[in-house]
Amino acid sequence: MVAHNLLPAIPRSTPALSLRVRAKDAVADGVVSLTLDHPDGLRLRDWTPGAHIDLVLPDGTTRQYSLCGDRWDAHSYRIAVLREPAGRGGSAYVHDGLMPGDRVGVGGPHNHFPLVPADRYLFIAGGIGITPVLPMIQQAELVGAEWQLLYGGCTRASMAFRTDLTRAHGERVRVRPQDEYGLLDLAAWLSTPAPATRVYCCGPAPLLTAVQEACAHWPDHSLRTERFAAAVRSEPVRRTPFEVELRRTGRTVTVTPDVSVLHAARRAGAEVLSSCEQGTCGTCLVPVLGGTPDHRDAVLADHERAAGDCMLPCVSRSHSDRLVLDL
Ligand code: FES
Fold first, then answer.
1. Interval between CA 197 and ligand 1 midpoint (Å)
2. Which end of the chain has the least Cβ crowding within 10 Å, N or C?
3. Whole-structure pTM value
């Protein structure tokens, strides 16, 4: 069974910081790393392995990037960004626009992919999905947990941090570029559920789907995944309007099929943060006080969906005629 991300029960609000690009380095074909610090040398907000920051683009939109540096360095953040020619402009801005010395808006950090305690970890990374895994490995080392990393990518040259990982950790890191080995041999790695083991996977959607299928017979909550791109969503359960009561705002709105709960709530005066508006970042999380949400995000874990006490209103909708939100 798939377990995904444990979320706090309340939405968070952290104003964007203006940070400085201290360094920009090519770390693989098509991948640059940015080291960000405070222009006045101030300490930055703490974070934990699996966390990401929101990078604010010049047009005010944001993109999420996993923190991949040393979480014990209180004065800098590091991210790595893959150039995505078919993307929406975030990676092009980082690759072509940002230079050392520039300022950039940064929100967060947020963590929807936390490393939960375990005796043993199997990390599976595809391409740029290696980024959240780096601080997880650091944490596993720190607490003396056993771990292995299966790291796939298109080619060796495209796999960021590959050399550092193999140099530091030897055989625990299995580098498997697709042009040499083909697709990751998930059947071999996941055929037998390992006791007290958590599987963490980050990478492109087909890899996540393959790992989810390969872990279907593992104990509940063994697998945790992080998805950067929105999953292909099925049709909403209902195609008729429903009501949403905004308890703190003191208003009830009718949500028609062409409008998201997020935008309907905002139009009614509720304050709710958002970022990706694709159900992948977790920023818009709101507590549900009544009704049954139709979860359509890529953030919540199965047991969190089943609990039905929070939802991502940018994409999720309603099973019931009425939802009551803590907004
Ligand atoms: Fe990102 Fe809703 S705004 S999940």
1. 30
2. N
3. 0.79
